[in-house]
Amino acid sequence: TMTWVWVVVVALLAVVLAIVARRLHSARERLGQVESRLATVLERSDAGLAVWNQQGRLIACNKRFREFYQTVELKSGLVYEDLTRFTATRGLIQLAEENVDTWVQERLAGFGDTSHEVCRTPDGRWIEIDNRPTGLGEVLLLYTDISQQGETETRLSDRGDRIETQAAELTLLVAAIRIGGHQGNPDLAIAELVECVCVWAEWPVGYAYRAVRNSNDVVLNPIPAWFADSGSKEMFVDLQEIIAHRRIKKGDALVGRVLHTGRLSWIPNVAVDPSVDAEVRSAMTGIRGMCAIPVKSGDETVAVLEFLSREQLVPDPATTRTLEAVASTLTGVFQRQSVS
C-alpha cells in the first residue's frame, strides 16, 4: 500500500514540475518578447538611452549609450552608482576635482526624480543628460549630444514667438548702435551696453574687463561696468567685491579664455565647469550659466563682457551671432579714443 502511495506522490510531483516548467518556459518566452520589443525601441532612439530598475540596476541600453562608455562593459545588472562614479572620476565629463563627490551624491539622491543638465566632455562636446522616471518604477537615462545641432534652442531664444524674438533683437541692436555712435568714453559705453544686454536676455548680472598691456603680456582688469537687476543687487554684493579685485591673465577663467581666442564663449553649467574659480562660484548664488563676449578694435580684443544666468545656457549659434553683432558696435568708441 505504501508503495502505491509513493507512486502516486511521485506522479503528482512530476505533473506539478511539468506544469511549473511549462509556465517558466512561457514566462521566459514572454520576457524574451518584452526584451526584444524594448531593444527595438531603444535602438530607434538617436539619443543614448539606458533603462534602470528601482534598485538602480541596468535593465537595458542601446548602442548609442554604449558609445559614451566604450571602455566599460555595460551588462544587465550593472549598478547605477558604479557607472555614475565612473562618469565623474574617469573624465567623461568636465568636473573640477573638488566637485566630483558632490556631483555624484546629487545624481544618486535624485535617481528617481526628473532632472536635466548640460555637461561638457573633455573633447569639447556638449551633452544633455536627462533622468525620467517611467511611473512604473523604472528610470530612463538619456544622453544627447547637442554639439552639432544647427540652431540649438535655448530658454533665452525660446521666449515668445519668432516675431517677438526678432523685435527684441532689433531693439537691442538699435540701442547698441546708439551707444557706439554717441558715447565717447569706452568704459561708460561698455557699462551702458552691459545693462542693455542684461535687460534683453533677462540675465541678472553683467560686468566687464578692459585689456591692459602688462610688460610683455596682456591682462584683464575690471572696470566699473557692474549691473545687477533690482532683485539681485543685495544677493551679489560679495561677488561684486571679488570681481572688483580680480586681475585675469590670458587663458585663465572664462574671460581669460575669450581674451586668448577672441571668440565668444559659454559655460552652460557653472556647477560642473572646472574653469570657474571656487571663490567666484561660492558667491554666485542661484547662477547656473555664464557667457563672455569679446569687444574688438581691429583684430585686437580690447575688452571682455561677462554675463551670468539663472538658467543653464546651451551654446546657441543664433544668440551668439546677435551678441557678437552687439559687441561690434563698440569698435568705433575705441577707435575714436585711439585717434584722439
Short structural summary:
The chain has helices at 2-44, 63-67, 80-89, 100-109, 162-182, 186-201, 237-244, 253-261, 278-282, 317-328, 331-339, and strands at residues 48-52, 58-61, 115-120, 126-133, 139-145, 205-214, 217-228, 248-249, 265-267, 289-297, 300-309. The chain is α+β, with helices and mostly antiparallel strands and 340 residues long. Helix 5 runs parallel beside helix 10.
Describe this structure in words.
The protein has 340 residues and is of the alpha+beta class. The chain has helices at residues 2-44, 63-67, 80-89, 100-109, 162-182, 186-201, 237-244, 253-261, 278-282, 317-328, 331-339, and strands at 48-52, 58-61, 115-120, 126-133, 139-145, 205-214, 217-228, 248-249, 265-267, 289-297, 300-309. The strands form two sheets. It has a six-stranded antiparallel β-sheet with strand order 8-7-6-11-10-9, sandwiched between helices. Strand 4 (126-133) and strand 5 (139-145) form a beta hairpin. Helix 3 runs antiparallel to helix 4 (100-109) and helix 5 packs antiparallel against helix 6. Mean pLDDT is 82; it is low at 25-44 and 150-160.
